[in-house]
Design goal:
The protein is an alpha/beta fold. The chain has 3 domains: 59-156 and 230-480, Alpha-Beta Barrel (TIM Barrel); 163-213, no CATH class; 488-563, Immunoglobulin-like (Sandwich), CATH 2.60.40.1180. The protein contains 17 helices and 23 strands. It has an 8-stranded parallel sheet. Helix 10 (328-337) runs antiparallel to helix 11 (344-358) and helix 13 packs parallel to helix 16 (467-480).
Length: 564
Amino acid sequence: MKGKLFLGLALACAALFTVVGCAPGDGPDGPDDPTEGSFPHAASEYVPTKDGLIEENIIDDKYDSYYQIFVYSFCDSNNDDHGDLNGITSKLEYLRGMGYTGIWLTPITKGGAIHKYDVTDYKTVDPTFGTIADFDKLVKRAHELGIKVILDMVFNHTSIKHEWFTNCVKAFLSNDRQNRYYDYYTLSKTSSGLYKFSKRYNYNNSMQTVYFESSQGQQEMPDLNLDSPHVKQELSDIIEFWMSEHDVDGFRLDACKNYFNNNTKSASYVSWIKEEACKYNPDAYIVGEVYDNDSVISSYYSNSTGDSFLWFPEAYFPSWSWSGKTYPIVSCTKQAVSGSSAGVASAYFNAMSSMVSKASGGIPAPFLDSHDTDRVADGAFGGNETMVKFGQMLFAMYTGNTFTYYGDEIGAMGTREQDSMTDVNRRLGMLWCKDDLENHPPIFMNGSTPNYAFEGVVEQIKDPTSILNVVKKCNNARNAFPALMRGAPTRVTYDDDAVLVMRKTYSGQSPITIVINFANTTKTVSTATFTEKALKWNVSAKGGDVTAEGTSLSMPALSIAILG
């Protein structure tokens, strides 16, 4: 996964396959090969746009553009109405063609709920998603394409049905302190004395009641006692299993803030996980979920050797679930598209600079939405296509590893109402083809109200002005200019407050100057005082190209240019 690749050639190869629906069809291994599938009504060539000719400069380090896949909802390879690993494998060429060089899979280990965060076996692939052989095939193909694979690893808690928990309860009730499972969880016969939320578990037909800790308030998911040396050994074995035997590139650590009731101690535990992972892959990438504000997340960067911690300040949440949250990219996008650009350039630059500073030399990990948030295209932008495009453009200019939730590249919709008890609308089936709505509906989520405001992948690929092609173009820029995702931004003085000029440098790589027009009108920008003056790349949310003549750039409304 290193060196230069002429993306035009890569996309020409990608054109040999089709972006289609996911039912099984004839593949290279015969008619039952589940990694190849097609619906005749959905078949469409993967048509590269003119931006497919941009030259990639992929550096072999830990910086990547990641794509988060909620496995249940992404692609169904065998027509059983839910996503699976073979479905993901069938779409890897698509993802690489879109410019993603890493994927984060939500839990694939055995569990009860469709999200699989309620783990019952850490070393078994849930049959819903396939087999360990299917996973190995996925990783092998991903690596061939230059895509890293990280797994969502749930070390904070397990399912109440995990054998560790049932054995712990038996040992606790019999006061068998010599049983290795006795200390796997923190249990009590009363709700007092537990430092996290307590939940009641009725054992043996409710004859005895046991209380357990559940830091996230989940009735069915008791927290592990991570102080236990036995638990620590179990986790070490799990890390070795996935890193050494199945070649994963790292982990996204679910709820790592909840490991202990102490942020410094939780951060230290992340460091231990990183050390364990690096025993098997020195380049293992560890990104933690610290569901909190910038100050708390910053403390994890300072007190841990973890590579990244997801940057929640940029993620969109409805006001009822996170009051006072500002999500700068969303706010700047809405203000700019509405025609009020005053102060937006400064707000955007300051937000990015603050994130980089608070990452304390680590890799920032911004994201706009995920399986736990409202879809940014819906809740934040209300289906406004211009806002969706411009928001994704601003997102792509951020330093660090961006994490894009599946379907955001086509403007996927879905929100959760305040009184709703389910996130199903935030996890709707991926729309591969608009025609599938009639002939093969996307993966159904019980209780959901599907809303597909925009065309599917197949249709958007053919439209050079689509959300998909704007996102692809931005990802291509991230792969072509190493300083874009790696360099800390420095602001270049410019006398129009609707225009942001910033410079990024990175050791051994060509520096770039990024110019963003936040105005809803065309701007003429003088490059006379800029260090970099040659127009190398551009994108616009409303159409039209940035053009250069002499020392002037003509920038359409809501456009971005990169100079080198």
